[in-house]
Amino acid sequence: MTIALAFDIGLAVLVLGLASWTIATREAFAAVVGFVAYGLLLALVWVRLAAPDVALTEAAIGSGVTGGLLLGASTRLRRTETPPAGEKPGRTLRLAAVVLCALVSAGLAAIVLLLPEPGPTLAPQAAANIAATGLGNPVTAVLMAYRAIDTLLETVVLLLALLGIWSLAPDRVWGGSPGLRHHADPDGVLTFAAQLLVPVGMLVGIHIFWVGSDAPGGEFQGATILAAMWILATMAGLVDAPPVSRRWLRLLLVAGPAVFLAIGLAGYAMAGAFLAYPAPYAKLLILTIEIPVTLSIATTLALLVAGPPERAPQQ
Amino acid sequence: MNLALDGLTIVAVSAGAFFFFAGTVGLLRFPDTLSRLHALTKADNLGLGLVVLGLLPRAEGPFGALKLIAVWLFALLAGATVTQLIARTARRGAPLA
Fold first, then answer.
1. Distance from CA of A72 to the nearest CA of B (A)
2. Beta bridge partners of A309
3. Same-domain pairing of A155 and A8
């Protein structure tokens, strides 16, 4: 048995064990901690499967942002942790859930086991046509050129999720700032860490976005790091969350999807199809889309974590 | 020369793994929050530091080595900050949920 195989088996056992523990644990907070650790282990699995792009996204969004959102949710739900006896699901309902889950698992297992060998793949075509996009990273080529419509819809879905969260705000605070104003000791450790880390983190975020055209990385991963830096600066009290009614904030949120859509529609005139890029300008157009999209995703993710407006807007 | 570098990698990474192991045992076995934090920081500081030291000869060029060192320094900064914040909350007697 090689050392790599031993590592893979250990990793698989850990992932399965942690997943079972996360489901079995009774406390919501403990389950969220388990879920974050599970996401980080899953990122290692993606690295072992030679998919560093997916690994980065899993670590940043699957584990980081989702973990942050779930932590906030579990804190809000703590008061309702133990449901009254009447609300506990009965034996029949639990049995039905077990049967349904078993069926879904069996179906998934059957599909994986019955896949044709070698599996159907578009990878050779993706690699053969990559020169036309001007990109070096095939994953980015899929996201921004071959399947750009999916990415466009993803950015819109993120925006809709934010609208859903904002709509939870009561009328009297509508248009105000999300969350409480954080006050940290200006000489404290958190302020110091934020002052040191935020500039470097922003640089790393921009770097990850920029190298995405030729190496693992891209706008979602870079935007997550930028959003995390903004959250850190807010937590340390260095900046305050802006009121959600600000015009510049709204513009920043829709800039990405709007530019994406505009260039997509211009594709009809320039190359004869929606989201088609004329070959000589493909790289330039992709970058023109990616920069506002990165800013929009970063703003949206940070505001998703910040939650609904809670402070009445100041006059 | 290569043998010496390989030896350094094996010794340093093994020592790092030992500190991670010891830190984990401390985290599970120590009686109160402050001692558990103390055990945990050994894994972060010494464990990760030794692993990075062991991997330095295998880095891709000087920039790869600098990236490894930067990872260690950021882990130190984040670890020290979070440990301070948790320890303060624990001393104030707030519930550590």
1. 13
2. A178
3. no
